[in-house]
UniProtKB/TrEMBL annotation:
Gene symbol of the encoding locus: dadA_4
Entry EC no(s): 1.4.99.6
Keyword Oxidoreductase: yes
Pfam families in UniProt: DAO
UniProt keyword Oxidoreductase present: yes
Protein name per the record: D-amino acid dehydrogenase small subunit
UniProt keyword terms in alphabetical order: Oxidoreductase
InterPro entries given in the database record: FAD-dep_OxRdtase, FAD/NAD-bd_sf
A cellular component term, taken from the record's GO annotations: cytoplasm
Gene Ontology terms for molecular function: oxidoreductase activity
Residue ranges constituting the FAD dependent oxidoreductase domain according to the UniProt record: 6-395
C-alpha cells in the first residue's frame, strides 16, 4: 500500500479497537471515537471466554420446541420482554425460519472462519505489549447435569467434532475430582483443552487503546451523529464534538450501528440480545478453568478482579436497564452448582449483544459509501474482534482477505 488514508473508527469496543490498531499498522492515520471511551459496553461485561468453539448458532433444529419450553419455564435461560414482541416480530420470523440443519451448518462454517483461530488473533494483536499479559491459556468445560443432557446437544457437538473440537468426557465422581468446586448437580463435563480467556475484559480494552496511542493513533470521546457524503462517498463523521474529516470510516458501534446505518440510507436486521452478569468479588473458590453451566447457559470465568458469571439471553430493547429474572437465575444456579462458594458482593450488569437473524456479523463496505461495517457479532464479539479488525484493515488497504466474506455481506439485509 502506497497511500496513507485518514480513517475514523466509530466505537471503541473490541471490534473498533482491533480495526483501529490494524489500520494504524497498515500505515493509515486513524482516529477512534466513542461516546463513553474504550470498552464501556458489551466488550467490558462479557464472559471473557476465548470462545473458539462457539460457532453453533442459537437457531438450530428444535428451536421452536425448545423456545416454547424455555419461555414457559421461569428457570430457563431464555427471557422475553413481551411488550417488544410486535417490534421484534420481523426479526423473530427470519430467525425462526433459519432454525434448520442446512442454515445452521452454513452459519457454523462461516463463523469457524472468524473465530476458530481467535486465540492466535488476539496474541498477534497484542504481542509484546501489556495487553498480552491479560490473555491466559486455559482449558474450557461445558458442565452438564448428566450425560443425557450432553447428548441433547449432539447436533452442535457433531459440528464441533467435524471442525476439530473433540471433547474429553469426564463423568460421575471424576467430575468432582477434576474440579472440587462443582457440586453433585453436575455429573458430566465436556472438556476442550487449551482455549484461553481474558483476565480483565475492561482493562484489556483500555490496554488496547494504549497500544493504538503508542503506535500513533488518536482516541477521542465523541458521539457519532451523522455522516457527510460527497458524491455518495464519506468525507466526514459528524459528532457532538464537531466533524471528523476522513477518507473512510469504520462502523463498530454494536446495537447502535442500526441507527447509524439508517443515516447512510441502509437497512439492517439487528436486534438486542440482552446479556446479564454477576461479578463475584473475593470468591472463596475459583474453578480450575472457565466453564459454561449447561442448565443456566452462562459462562463462569475466573478473572483478576473476581469470578464472572455472565450470559443468558433476553430478547428486548437496549433502552432499558437490567432485568431481575436473568440475574436471579444466575444467582440460583451458582448456589446449586457451587454449593460451598462464598463471596463478598455480587456486582450486577446488563449489556446489549447486537444480533442478526442469521447469527452472522456484518463485515465489509456498506454500499459504495467508503464506510465499512464491523458489527453484529452476537455472542462471539470478543473472540472474533481481532480477526474482524484485521479483515477490515485488509479491505481498506486493498489486500484480498484469505477467507470468503460473502456470508458477512454488509448489504445483505438491504436487498429484502
Amino acid at each position: 500500500m502506497s497511500t496513507s488514508l485518514k480513517i475514523v473508527v466509530i466505537g471503541a469496543g473490541i471490534c473498533g479497537l482491533s480495526s483501529a490498531i490494524w489500520l494504524q499498522r497498515s500505515g493509515h492515520q486513524v482516529t477512534l471515537i466513542d461516546r463513553e471511551g474504550p470498552g464501556a459496553g458489551a466488550s467490558y461485561g462479557n464472559a471473557g471466554l476465548m470462545a473458539q468453539w462457539a460457532f453453533i448458532p442459537v437457531n438450530t433444529p428444535g428451536l421452536i420446541k425448545d423456545s416454547i419450553k424455555y419461555l414457559t419455564d421461569p428457570s430457563s435461560p431464555l427471557f422475553m420482554q413481551w411488550g417488544q414482541v410486535p417490534r421484534l416480530a420481523p426479526w423473530l420470523w427470519q430467525f425462526v425460519k433459519r432454525a434448520n440443519a442446512k442454515d445452521a451448518r452454513y452459519t457454523a462454517q462461516a463463523l469457524i472462519d472468524i473465530i476458530a483461530d481467535g486465540g492466535d488473533q488476539h496474541r498477534a494483536l497484542t504481542r509484546a505489549t501489556q495487553a498480552e499479559e491479560m490473555i491466559t491459556s486455559s482449558d474450557f468445560v461445558y458442565a452438564y447435569a448428566s450425560r443425557k443432557d450432553f447428548d441433547k446437544d449432539n447436533f452442535g457437538w457433531g459440528i464441533r467434532r467435524e471442525a476439530g473440537f473433540v471433547p474429553e468426557m469426564i463423568e460421575g465422581a471424576a467430575v468432582q475430582e477434576f474440579d472440587p468446586m462443582l457440586g453433585p448437580s453436575i455429573q458430566c463435563l465436556a472438556r476442550l483443552k487449551t482455549q484461553g480467556h481474558i483476565l480483565d475484559p475492561g482493562g484489556y480494552m483500555h490496554a488496547l487503546a494504549d497500544i493504538l496511542r503508542a503506535e500513533g493513533g488518536q482516541v477521542a470521546q465523541a458521539e457519532a451523529k451523522d455522516f457527510t457524503l460527497h458524491d455518495g462517498k464519506i468525507s466526514s463523521v459528524e459528532t457532538d464534538q464537531g466533524g471528523f474529516p476522513c477518507d473512510h470510516a469504520v462502523l463498530t458501534t454494536g446495537i447502535w450501528s442500526k441507527a447509524l446505518m439508517k443515516k447512510l440510507g441502509f437497512k439492517v436486521m439487528l436486534e438486542t440480545e440482552r446479556g446479564h452478569h454477576l461479578h463475584l468479588k473475593n470468591p472463596s473458590q475459583i474453578p480450575r478453568c472457565p466453564m459454561i453451566l449447561g442448565k443456566g447457559k452462562f459462562g463462569v470465568t475466573p478473572m483478576s478482579t473476581g469470578l464472572r458469571c455472565a450470559g443468558t439471553v433476553e430478547l428486548g430493547t437496549h433502552e432499558r436497564g437490567a432485568s431481575r429474572a436473568p440475574l436471579e437465575l444466575i444467582r440460583k444456579q451458582i448456589t446449586k452448582d457451587f454449593p460451598n462458594l462464598e463471596y463478598d458482593v455480587a456486582e450486577e450488569w446488563v449489556g446489549y449483544r447486537p444480533s442478526t437473524p442469521d447469527s452472522l456479523p456484518l463485515i465489509g463496505e456498506i454500499g459504495k459509501t467508503g464506510v465499512y461495517a464491523g458489527f453484529g457479532h452476537q455472542h462471539i464479539g470478543l473472540t472474533a474482534g481481532p480477526k474482524t479488525g484485521r479483515l477490515i484493515a485488509d479491505l481498506i488497504s486493498g489486500r484480498k482477505p484469505n477467507i470468503d466474506l460473502s456470508p458477512f455481506d454488509a448489504n445483505r439485509f438491504d436487498r429484502h
